[in-house]
Amino acid sequence: MKAEKTVLIDHLLQKVNASPFLFVVDYAGLTVDKFEELRKRLRASGAEMHVYKNTLVKQATTKAGLPAELGESLTGQTAIVTGEKDVCAAAKVMKTFSTEFQKPQLKAGVLDGKYLGVDNINSLADLPSREVLLAQLLGVLQAPASTLVRLLNEPAASLARVLKAKGEQAA
């Protein structure tokens, strides 16, 4: 049995190390159908949810060097959410799903090795998607360039307006 536990801990450790984030979720009272629906939504956002024994998760997170506060939230029926993509998308899925069905409840999380409380995770869920943030950044970066182009074109446009007005006066 010890060899099986070691294999499970190593597998979990690989998942934790490969993911920039980890959420601890209390899934008590969630039906199998709803659990599968949540997994499906998370998979669409690039995340996945797994159930492990709390002791195995504690050992893996300790080996990974994650904050000790995370171990305190590993009580009762817990699942972990990990992913390799957008943390905000996974947080948004969790928040939306728990709002719809009042279950599961977020307990805690870790993002890039830093402990996150439930409020922090909900704040991540309220952020716009990655694509929207990139579009906003692009708009901010393009604004000075477009202003510069307008300023460089203005003297020529002013000269053209003056010449047109003179031409209309002469006629």
How would you describe this structure to a colleague?
With 171 residues, the protein is an alpha+beta fold. It folds into two domains: 126 residues, Alpha-Beta Plaits; 44 residues. 64% of the residues lie in helices and 15% in strands. It has seven helices and five strands, in the order αβαβααβαββαα. The protein has a five-stranded antiparallel β-sheet with strand order 2-3-1-4-5, sandwiched between helices. A hairpin with a 2-residue loop joins strand 4 and strand 5. Helix 1 crosses helix 3 and helix 5 packs across helix 6. The N and C termini lie far apart (101 Å). The model has no long low-confidence stretch (mean pLDDT 81).
Question: What attributes characterize this protein structure?
Answer:
Alpha-Beta Plaits, 171 residues, 64% helix, Ribosomal_uL10, 15% strand, alpha+beta, rRNA-binding, Ribosomal_uL10_bac, ribosomal protein, five-stranded antiparallel sheet, elongated
Largest sheet: 5 strands, antiparallel
Shape: elongated
Q: Mean of residue pLDDT? A: 81
- CATH-defined topology of the largest domain: Alpha-Beta Plaits
- CATH class value of the largest domain: Alpha Beta
What is the rounded Rg? 26 Å
Strand order of the largest sheet: 2-3-1-4-5
- The CATH architecture of the largest domain would be 2-Layer Sandwich
Structural class: alpha+beta
The portion of residues forming beta strands comes to: 15-25%
Count of spatially separate domains: 2
Helix share bin: 55-70%
Low-confidence stretches: none
**Total count of strands:** 5
**Order of secondary-structure elements:** HEHEHHEHEEHH
| N-to-C CA distance | 101 Å
CATH superfamily of the largest domain: Ribosomal protein L10, N-terminal RNA-binding domain
| SS element count, helices | 7
